[in-house]
């Protein structure tokens, strides 16, 4: 099969894959879904409630938590697309060390997010046939809280730090976003336990970064000066 037989179209044999333009919205979609899910979770199942299982006995609050958990997989998928968008924007200037930490922390963040949502979903499934006993409820709540607040948010901080480092060296985003990213990572590393609403900082920063990437357009250049469009 030859190029002449297929014509000069974008699907000709041996042509490089191009990042879909719609993928530029991946970070915005992730931020919107993640913020919505976190807000629903914090309102319906507050972390410092006197009765840890109160939300399971309230149909409206249980439904709100179920909606939030159903948004998590789509947020994770959008985040994976967002990672791909950033790597495409970096282009051939990507450093192997930072690329490994960047990709690894992003994948771990999504994995822990999914596991936390699965554990919380399991509690809802158990509650449909009766309220679980106190030990089961405490175990599920503590596992979910640890995965989301301790581990996932720390991976989000590492992802943010790595992204900021790459962005500073390659100048692929605005300078103020790198400074905001450093502050975001610091808060996520040491300040998550202060307030459960601190978690919203990460998707908010991703939203700002996505808007900057979308507005600036494909300005990442290869060493030869060619656009990576």
| Helix-and-strand structural type | mainly alpha
- How much strand? under 5%
Q: What's the main sheet like? A: none
How many domains? The number is 1
Distinct helical segment count:
8
> What pattern of helices and strands is seen along the backbone?
HHHHHHHH
Helix content: 55-70%
Are there runs of 5+ residues with pLDDT below 50, and where?
1-9, 219-229
Taking all residues together, what is the mean pLDDT? 78
**Shape call:** elongated
- Distance between the amino and carboxyl termini: 26 Å
Written account of the structure:
- The protein has one domain.
- The protein is 70% helix and 0% strand.
- The protein is elongated.
- The N terminus and C terminus are likely disordered.
Can you give keywords for this protein?
mainly alpha, disordered C terminus
Q: How is the secondary structure organized here?
A:
Blueprint: H1 3-6, H2 26-44, H3 54-57, H4 59-90, H5 96-127, H6 134-170, H7 175-190, H8 201-216
Summarize the entry for a quick read.
The protein is built from eight helices and no strands. It has helices at about 5, 25-45, 55, 60-90, 95-125, 135-170, 175-190, 200-215.
